[in-house]
Design goal:
mainly alpha, globular
Amino acid sequence: RDDVESRGLGDVYKRQVLDGSSKPLTQGSLPNRLLASVLGNGDTIEAPTMVTRPNLEVSFMIELINRFFTENYHSYPFLNQAAIINFVMSSNINRLDSLPASDSFEIFMIMFIGYCSLERVGKINTDIHLKKYLISKSIEQTNDVITFDNIESIKFLLLLGIYSLFDTAGSTSWHIAGNINRLILSLGLNR
């Protein structure tokens, strides 16, 4: 604690990091805030609800993934584009639905971010059913993949952060950035 004083860090840092009196978003509140931002329901909603699976062509899924890699890969360089595309090309949406949580979270978030990118530039028309499906498939996995106690959680929070930067409400990106910072500090990665 003397080191904290010598670096000029104030009482807020000591309260939040050293004695743990400030807690990051709970696992349940993060998915609710993200889903609410996508659906335009203010800050929170009750709980993410599953949406029926739309008919997704493999070629469209590849287009969404390619868009993510074109625009966002520099912010999230943890993935092998060729391996993901090969996997999706050899799969269908039914197989993607049955993947382990960590794999499906990444693939559905990548497709959702790609969808949002294409939608924003007017390359595709808004399909609210598809949009709800992609985000609900991502969000339903959030509590399983973001455990707030390992480096993988930082990686997944970064992916959520990429989406949240497109969120018009704006508050979600601050919550995610704060959670990433707290997690980095709690794991000692700042040393």
